[in-house]
């Protein structure tokens, strides 16, 4: 058991994060900066849903809804109290984590499709709330909504420009992946692996299955809250159309296509979700074509690549290494 | 001492265990019986996976049935399953450590114990091997180490020799015989392999159709005509 060991995949992640930190802000224009920031936020959200699926085999179809909740709290706190961005972000993440726990409690009695349906219903409920009450924009009252232009949003002191904000998002995303990896390597990760193997075997090993499943929901909720808070910070306001229940389903499907067991699976999923439509638009092609590509990707993953595109990349690298080993 | 008092389990109209009574006092005891006799159901009652209709189980003075399954593990109950439940994406060491994770103690001591147990079962050179790369005997050995992790008080093996060769079964039996000496835990073994049971178990309970048909010293039990007829049937003239 090596807690501090950096795997080749870990090194690749650190190198990619360094490249994203230094190169992307330097090379991208304003439009692409916005796309990359959004991709970074959704990478964190997908990482949450992938983590639940890969570690526990649980399907959560409410991740984008929880992301909206994190964004709502972020906007509300920003307009109400003028606290530092980081404090608002932590509070938004904690609120969504608690909501993840609350949602988990009734869902704990269900498994598989039924669990997915419960989470989808929660996403539907959040969608209705967002559509009815909208997102805070500096108005009065609990909901904080006013007509006319939105009040200014305070970005973090460290990242007031879009370039710096992209760097900020990259660092937070890296911290989120480290949080997941730390869990995977420690007691919770072992408990989750046993639960996924067999709940009976996990209980026989002393694992409190309800507690650890709830914990996993909390982590996924926390990541959704961070993602939503960062997205709110990027745009300064949010639109309810971003957080529809169907988006949660799409995010989960893309997590499967990308590869839920790998960190770069989440990145691939977010890239497909955010960068591919932007590229299609850039090329003058209808961005809705991306849905056709997603569908084809999902069929491909379900039929031939259960570990998604990331699993195929990992498999190809392993095969190449094995071939090299045989040759030498 | 494990006291099973009038335990009855019903699944709808089926009586899986019918007022089963036994007091296991030996370091290694066995439970045998034909398929469907209720052996695994009794083990599931002790583990907390099956609710009893009536009866009680007192183990070392503690009423086991009042505890949730994971709390029984914290108390010291260990069990293996018919199919070795080894997580494929955990290493051998982690598979054993997961059992020690949920008992009090510091991590360094737990790690030292896990390494010691893996050396005992002969898996010291496989500590970093992922579960998916193990063969069925290695998975079984890992399972035995797992059952000995923490401070076990009662260790139950459900058909541990299933699918193993004669040599592997021999080695497995040797290891099970040492579990009590190394941990102080009482051991219960379910198996169809009567030879294994007669070699390692001092006393044996025989179940048939959910009822106790014999209980006592293994040699006497195996010589009992009722046990022979349960296994071999009766001759019709």
TrEMBL record, chain A:
The answer to whether keyword Cell membrane applies is yes
Q: Does the keyword Zinc-finger apply?
A: no
Q: Which InterPro entries match?
A: ABC_transp_permease, LivM-like
Family annotation (Pfam families): BPD_transp_2 (PF02653)
Q: Which PANTHER family match?
A: BRANCHED-CHAIN AMINO ACID TRANSPORT PERMEASE PROTEIN LIVM-RELATED, HIGH-AFFINITY BRANCHED-CHAIN AMINO ACID TRANSPORT SYSTEM PERMEASE
Protein's name according to its UniProt entry: High-affinity branched-chain amino acid transport system permease protein LivH
| GO cellular component entries | plasma membrane
The record's subcellular location field reads: Cell membrane
| Annotated transmembrane regions | 7-25, 31-49, 87-105, 112-133, 165-182, 194-211, 217-238, 250-273, 293-317
Classify the source by domain of life.
Bacteria
Which species does this protein come from? Answer: Pseudoprimorskyibacter insulae
From TrEMBL, chain B:
Which keywords does the record carry? ATP-binding, Hydrolase, Nucleotide-binding, Transport
EC numbers? 3.6.3.-
Domain ABC transporter: start-end pairs: 2-234
- Supply the SMART domains for this chain: AAA (SM00382)
Pfam families from the entry? ABC_tran, BCA_ABC_TP_C
**What name does the UniProt record give this protein?**
Lipopolysaccharide export system ATP-binding protein LptB
Q: Please give the superkingdom of this protein's source.
A: Bacteria
Q: Name one GO molecular function term.
A: ATP hydrolysis activity
Give an example GO cellular component term for this record: plasma membrane
